[in-house]
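Q: Two folds, back to back.
A: First:
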Amino acid sequence: MKPQFTKLSRWLAALPLAFALHGTLHAETVARYGISMADIPLTTGQPDRGAGAYQFTGHTLYDPLVAWEANVGNRPGKLVPGLASEWKVDAKDNKKWVFTLRKGVKFHDGSEFNADAVVWNLDKVLADKSSQFDAKQSAQVRPRIPSIASYRKLGDYAVEITTKEIDALFPYQLPWFLISSPTQWETMGKDWNKVASKPSGTGPFKLDKLVPRERADLIKNTAYWDKTRMAKTDRIVLVPIPDAMTRANALLNGQVDIIETPPPDVLPQLKGAGFKLVQNVTPHVWPYHFSTQPGSPWTDIRVRKAANLAIDRNAVVSLMSGLATPAKGQLDPTSPWFGKPDFKIGYDLPAARALMAQAGYSQAKPLKAKVIIAQGGTGQMLSLPMNEFVQQSLAEIGIQVTFEVVELENLYLHWRSGAKADMNAGKGISAINLGYVTADPFYALTRFADSRYVAPNGVNWGGYNNPKVDAAIDQIRTTFDTKKQDGLLSFVHQAMVNDALMLWVVHDVNPHAISPKVKEFIQAQHWFQDLTTIRM
């Protein structure tokens, strides 16, 4: 075992006995979950470490105003009421949205959820002059809710949010905005670092114990307001195990009950030992996001298209032992927003080399580029082996890629900063490898294609600017007819593919391996997962 996991190994070895004793005294059901992150995501209200963290310390401890249905696995989920029982756009002013809030909801500390709490939380992440403003939480969620211009309390249980422009897709931004307790912040001396160990949300779990980089114990909230979403397990222990092989060994040795992203070459051993592989259709893509800013080696569309034609995606799927599907764009062709792109993404080395030759490059005279990637983490799949495969593939057509390898949260910092930032352009970084959630129109398309969302205003990382796409997005924002929206979104996706905005490699299937002790785990068709469905 690697030296850095010695301490983890000792702690894991003590887990079964500890829980056996605890279970004898309290008959408590416990699920131990080996997660692929190096640390427990932020617990104060807005998780760090990317979209995957929301399943661990986001939608477990907290609730959003508008939620995503993540407790069904046989169909795509949809937006559903959360702490807002209903929402509607103002018929006279389509920039204004009115949210009717639930009555009788309590935070874990016993304080009441109401409109004051919503406004306080919006100030927490958007109003940097407010006393409760938290730069850490703001950095995580501000790029996810870029449409918000202002907000106000209408009554004890009603809030109005005004968007910068008319935005029919605005509700899709809100599952990412989570509500924490103002009272608990006061109780903990107005110190977010202290709140981290004793947070208070309204979610189906409470935080019982936090040991950074070792474990987080989530216990069932028996007073949870949504009786249809009560946790089926009394306690879930999150154990950060970033190394895939170490995670698999922990599962095989009975030290954890469920792991995410098992290493593909260990699947036969896991299945032979009675462990079950769980996967599902997952709206999640693994791309290289190119910079199209001046000076970037990717400004030539011929180079971007050549890169997309240089990858044998079926070989990548084989590398993943089938735990992926080839990408033909940002979306799967079954999506209603895929459209009919003229540029057909596939594996065609002669065509790729011809495009590179037209651009003035070859294996003898390579184009050089630096890509920033993560060591691993939820959503990054098998980051290093996959990136090495892409690196070797691109070399065959005269693209010489070097990597800047960082920890996942550091990668997100580079992502939020945008390609023009000194930490990227100043270091010669011209592409970023980051898994993207593609479950809804905003997250799949408009946040990457809208020129108004170039950092720091959003996560149009590479500075993509297509006036026709901007015009289509303007129409999408003002179109509340979903069929018309679908047609316009198809146009946006077509343009993204035709412009080879990214190098799209594969779609994830979000694999999990579970012990026979786990009697139920519903895997949603989303990057959000609902841990209340785990039953031991």
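A: Second:
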Amino acid sequence: MKIGAPKEIYEGEARVAMTPESALQLQKLGYECAIESGAGVNAGFADALYEAAGVEIIKTAAALWKECDIVAKVRQPNDTEMKRLRKGQTLISFFNPGGNEEGMEKAKASGANVIAMEMVPRISRAQKMDALSSMANIAGYRAVIEAGNNFGRFFTGQVTAAGKVPPAKVLVVGAGVAGLAAIGTSTSLGAITYAFDVRPEVAEQVESMGAEFVYLDFEEEQQDGAATGGYASVSSPEFREAQLAKFRELAPEVDIVITTALIPNREAPELWTEDMVQAMKPGSVIVDLAAEKGGNCKLTVKDEKIVTPNGVTIVGYTDFPSRMASQSSSLYATNIRHMMTDLTPEKDGQINHNMEDDVIRGATVTYEGEITFPPPPPKVAAIAAQTKEKPKELTPEEIRANEVAAFKAQTKQQVTLLVVGAVLLLGVGLVAPASFMQHFIVFVLSVFIGFQVIWNVSHSLHTPLMAVTNAISSIIILGAVMQIGSSSFIVILLAALSVFMAGINIFGGFLVTRRMLAMFQKS
């Protein structure tokens, strides 16, 4: 079978669904590859690169749609492209099935099979095909770069001879894939970064990236991601009011706001109202990544950059991935290639459209003349945070009872060990000479003290306890010096070895401690 990628006809779209590298991988699956002439030029992939990779160059889009059994696209196909679909042909593309009922009806009438890349379920096995995440990652990164391009100061704080520059304060609303990418970019540029999300379980991810999570003084049980495909769910009106109140509090402080909040198949929720924009400082920037679905900011204008009367720049571009066409094409083409790998288990160049497979079934919106959208929930739940049960709080009486029980158990254990030890010593004393018992008792006590002082201490604390170990080594040296004048050669030898090894421990300990202290000295 032949797989082809036409040139994107959506205005301003520079991405392409096949790169020379992905074509080589598709050929290993047994497919022939084709591309429309000039399809990859805007992404930095000339026709010559495709030819070198063994890809057939087809002059027109009409010829490509006619010759190819599988067509891979980036943007949702328009009416002209939908008319070119034929029975048995497979289209892999972003398709917007939730808002494209007319397109699904046309695909059904043509008998073509359509796989919508935005419908890939968010389960672990499908991460390699998750094109939404791939593009959101690029959009989040690019949003910070666009914000910096429109912001009049440094992101990082500086103290120079010419004056002091405070760091920028960035608020990222929504800590999904795009939000986390924006947080990572912002913190790496040195900005003080805050982040908010309706899912409190993402707080750890936010804080691990060096940002501060914004908590609300409001508790509401959120539906976890397993039921919503890994996305946030709709919040209650009370939660929304608490959320807006917090944003109004932050608006005068922050310099840059990046909004990423979207719920699949819904209009973007309005989170940054007109009065919040008016409360922001002149020169502040808002980058609205939800502009395509209406925007999270009340004043966002789709595909435009505007400046409000109070000097706030609002960026409503919807083509952030396309502004990094080479990178986004490579990632998207890799997503397509992984989808084709699942569709070709035998690597024989023939599609096996297995509707029992969670990933393939979830992404398929039309199959063999039938509309299969919406898909059933996947058998494997989406990635979601595991709720931890809070430990039961004990009453003072229960705490006291537990302490008494623990004390009794510890006392019983210690008494048992002392009794057993005394019996063993008594048994040895009945048959051993007095001189042996004197040394044996010292040995037993030394072992006991060494165990309590050294063995029960965590390994990470041994270095701070160097003074204690030095003291023990000093006791060993003193004991060895007292024995070094013995008449027995073996005793003298053992005593000399003890002095030598304990001396190494003491002087080596001082050297190690000195080196550790030197690490904290500026000189």
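Q: And?
A: The two ends are 69 Å apart (CA to CA).
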